[in-house]
Protein backbone atom coordinates (compact mmCIF):
# COMPACT_ATOMS: atom_id res chain seq x y z
CA UNK A 1 0.00 0.00 0.00
CA UNK A 2 1.43 3.39 -0.98
CA UNK A 3 1.90 6.27 1.43
CA UNK A 4 -0.87 8.11 -0.43
CA UNK A 5 -3.27 5.19 0.05
CA UNK A 6 -2.43 5.11 3.77
CA UNK A 7 -3.16 8.85 4.00
CA UNK A 8 -6.48 8.32 2.23
CA UNK A 9 -7.46 5.80 4.92
CA UNK A 10 -6.60 8.39 7.60
CA UNK A 11 -8.66 11.16 6.01
CA UNK A 12 -11.67 11.72 8.28
CA UNK A 13 -13.50 14.12 5.96
CA UNK A 14 -14.88 14.20 2.43
CA UNK A 15 -12.16 14.01 -0.22
CA UNK A 16 -12.54 14.78 -3.91
CA UNK A 17 -9.52 13.75 -5.98
CA UNK A 18 -10.49 15.20 -9.37
CA UNK A 19 -11.35 18.81 -8.56
CA UNK A 20 -11.18 21.45 -11.26
CA UNK A 21 -8.97 23.93 -9.39
CA UNK A 22 -7.40 26.97 -11.05
CA UNK A 23 -3.61 26.90 -11.52
CA UNK A 24 -1.44 27.03 -9.48
CA UNK A 25 -3.75 25.65 -6.75
CA UNK A 26 -3.13 21.92 -6.26
CA UNK A 27 -5.29 21.34 -3.20
CA UNK A 28 -7.82 23.08 -1.01
CA UNK A 29 -9.26 22.46 2.44
CA UNK A 30 -12.71 23.96 2.82
CA UNK A 31 -15.04 24.17 5.75
CA UNK A 32 -18.65 25.32 5.76
CA UNK A 33 -21.43 24.83 8.27
CA UNK A 34 -22.58 21.76 6.35
CA UNK A 35 -19.35 20.07 5.26
CA UNK A 36 -15.61 19.81 5.64
CA UNK A 37 -13.80 18.68 2.51
CA UNK A 38 -10.43 18.43 0.82
CA UNK A 39 -10.22 19.01 -2.90
CA UNK A 40 -7.24 17.72 -4.88
CA UNK A 41 -6.55 19.03 -8.36
CA UNK A 42 -7.03 16.64 -11.23
CA UNK A 43 -3.65 17.89 -12.52
CA UNK A 44 -1.86 15.84 -9.83
CA UNK A 45 -0.43 12.84 -11.66
CA UNK A 46 1.71 10.78 -9.32
CA UNK A 47 1.00 9.15 -5.99
CA UNK A 48 3.86 11.20 -4.49
CA UNK A 49 2.34 14.48 -5.76
CA UNK A 50 -1.04 13.53 -4.34
CA UNK A 51 0.42 12.45 -0.99
CA UNK A 52 2.32 15.73 -0.54
CA UNK A 53 -0.70 17.90 -1.30
CA UNK A 54 -3.07 15.74 0.76
CA UNK A 55 -0.69 15.90 3.74
CA UNK A 56 -0.69 19.70 3.65
CA UNK A 57 -4.47 19.86 3.32
CA UNK A 58 -4.85 17.43 6.24
CA UNK A 59 -2.53 19.77 8.10
CA UNK A 60 -5.07 22.54 7.52
CA UNK A 61 -7.83 20.27 8.80
CA UNK A 62 -5.85 19.53 11.98
CA UNK A 63 -4.25 22.92 12.67
CA UNK A 64 -6.01 25.89 11.09
CA UNK A 65 -9.24 27.74 11.72
CA UNK A 66 -11.27 29.96 9.44
CA UNK A 67 -10.49 31.43 6.05
CA UNK A 68 -6.73 31.96 5.72
CA UNK A 69 -6.62 32.58 1.97
CA UNK A 70 -5.42 36.18 2.38
CA UNK A 71 -1.71 35.51 2.88
CA UNK A 72 -0.94 39.21 3.34
CA UNK A 73 -2.23 38.76 6.92
CA UNK A 74 0.56 37.56 9.21
CA UNK A 75 -1.76 35.36 11.31
CA UNK A 76 -2.87 33.57 8.14
CA UNK A 77 0.73 32.99 7.04
CA UNK A 78 1.47 31.50 10.45
CA UNK A 79 -1.47 29.11 10.10
CA UNK A 80 -0.30 28.16 6.59
CA UNK A 81 3.14 27.36 7.98
CA UNK A 82 1.63 25.25 10.77
CA UNK A 83 -0.32 23.20 8.23
CA UNK A 84 2.74 22.67 6.03
CA UNK A 85 4.87 21.70 9.01
CA UNK A 86 2.23 19.16 10.04
CA UNK A 87 2.44 17.66 6.55
CA UNK A 88 6.24 17.55 6.60
CA UNK A 89 6.31 15.71 9.90
CA UNK A 90 3.56 13.34 8.75
CA UNK A 91 5.23 12.30 5.48
CA UNK A 92 8.92 12.75 6.34
CA UNK A 93 9.35 11.84 10.00
CA UNK A 94 12.92 11.79 11.24
CA UNK A 95 12.71 8.04 11.84
CA UNK A 96 11.97 7.49 8.15
CA UNK A 97 14.98 9.58 7.13
CA UNK A 98 17.03 7.16 9.20
CA UNK A 99 15.17 4.29 7.52
CA UNK A 100 16.14 5.69 4.11
CA UNK A 101 19.78 5.79 5.20
CA UNK A 102 19.60 2.20 6.47
CA UNK A 103 17.98 1.15 3.17
CA UNK A 104 21.00 2.47 1.29
CA UNK A 105 19.57 5.74 -0.08
CA UNK A 106 22.41 8.16 -0.73
CA UNK A 107 20.95 11.19 -2.54
CA UNK A 108 17.80 13.33 -2.52
CA UNK A 109 16.21 11.50 -5.45
CA UNK A 110 16.64 8.10 -3.79
CA UNK A 111 15.43 9.37 -0.41
CA UNK A 112 12.34 11.05 -1.91
CA UNK A 113 11.56 7.90 -3.88
CA UNK A 114 11.97 5.74 -0.77
CA UNK A 115 9.72 8.07 1.27
CA UNK A 116 7.18 8.37 -1.61
CA UNK A 117 7.34 12.17 -1.69
CA UNK A 118 8.54 14.68 -4.25
CA UNK A 119 12.10 15.98 -4.09
CA UNK A 120 10.73 19.50 -3.50
CA UNK A 121 8.64 18.28 -0.55
CA UNK A 122 11.68 16.46 0.87
CA UNK A 123 13.78 19.63 0.62
CA UNK A 124 11.04 21.74 2.27
CA UNK A 125 10.84 19.13 5.04
CA UNK A 126 14.59 19.39 5.62
CA UNK A 127 14.31 23.19 5.86
CA UNK A 128 11.50 22.75 8.41
CA UNK A 129 13.65 20.43 10.51
CA UNK A 130 16.58 22.89 10.32
CA UNK A 131 14.29 25.63 11.62
CA UNK A 132 13.09 23.35 14.41
CA UNK A 133 16.37 21.68 15.48
CA UNK A 134 19.24 23.63 13.96
CA UNK A 135 21.91 21.88 11.88
CA UNK A 136 21.48 18.44 13.44
CA UNK A 137 19.46 16.26 15.76
CA UNK A 138 20.36 13.09 17.65
CA UNK A 139 17.92 10.17 17.71
CA UNK A 140 18.99 7.08 19.59
CA UNK A 141 22.32 6.06 18.06
CA UNK A 142 21.92 8.23 14.95
CA UNK A 143 22.85 11.84 14.26
CA UNK A 144 20.96 13.46 11.39
CA UNK A 145 22.67 16.39 9.71
CA UNK A 146 20.48 18.66 7.64
CA UNK A 147 22.99 20.60 5.55
CA UNK A 148 24.37 18.67 3.86
CA UNK A 149 21.83 15.95 4.49
CA UNK A 150 23.42 12.92 6.08
CA UNK A 151 23.16 10.35 8.84
CA UNK A 152 25.92 9.16 11.13
CA UNK A 153 25.42 5.96 13.07
CA UNK A 154 27.23 5.54 16.37
CA UNK A 155 28.36 2.07 17.35
CA UNK A 156 29.02 0.86 20.87
CA UNK A 157 32.55 -0.11 21.84
TrEMBL record:
Q: Name one Pfam family in it.
A: Peptidase_M78
Origin superkingdom: Bacteria
Describe the location of the IrrE N-terminal-like domain by residue ranges: 28-123
Protein name per the record: ImmA/IrrE family metallo-endopeptidase
Q: Which organism is it from?
A: Paenibacillus albicereus
